[in-house]
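Human: I would love a firmer grasp of how sequence relates to backbone shape in proteins. Take your time, and here it is.
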Amino acid sequence: MSGEEIMAGQPEASLLGLRLDEHHAPETNGRMAVCRRCGAQTDGPEGRRHVPDEKRLAHAERWLDSQARTRHVDHARELLKG
């Protein structure tokens, strides 16, 4: 991977990390810098913020998309009930 490729992915990773942080607070086990909820890396074992690994950006994006679909389905079910 060239330096240009690394630099190009950093803003994308930062934005995705912000989106994950907006969705939920990182949940770690206190020993590993990985969120138990979404699987993304965090800034440390304390998990103050998400810092997705460049190699797993697609996974984090798919996870956020699936969460949005689940919310839409849940909302539609509620509308049908009431």
The chain has one domain: 3-81. The helical segments are 3-23, 57-81.
